[in-house]
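Re-run with default settings, no changes from the original entry. Doing this only to confirm the output is reproducible before filing.
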Amino acid sequence: MEPSLFSGQVHRPLAARMRPERLEDVVGQQHLLAPGRPLGDAIRNGTVGSVILTGPPGTGKTTIAHLIGRYTKQKVIVINAVTAGIPRLREIVDEAQERARAEGRGTLVVVDELHRWARTQQDALLPHVERGTIALCGATTEPPAFAVVGALLSRCRVYALRPLTADDIREVCERALEDTDRGLGNRK
């Protein structure tokens, strides 16, 4: 029987199901992720600190953030700046402190659409990033020099992602069509 679009993993959006689980599987962004490139090497070595990923929608910012967490063995918590505020950040910081005490494990906070947070909200991240309570991975489609407060920006490395090429998009589509576990390979 063919799986239903509403059963099991298949109900998740195709992009979420096909999200790369290894750095080598990321399509595009080789200017950042190839061996010998600072971000790729830092991820492989597990030495990524706080970063801001900037680029157009759909270029892999969230995927790279998840891979940073995976390779550095940190707990990844993704929040969206549109829906989360300082109260949620306080909860995350408390959880991060407890996790560090109990498990000796760090926390990577991915703030999607970081540019949508007000200056005071971005400032609330600063002491926790400075102390290392959390590592920050801010994702933004806006130029960080204008969208991120200077104090926070100065404590992060900024990486600019490029738009995917037609060949990149073709490769992503082909993978989805061929993959029988996560993609559409088992469908007619």
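Confidence is low (pLDDT under 50) at residues 1-7. The beta strands are 51-54, 75-80, 107-112, 135-140, 157-160.
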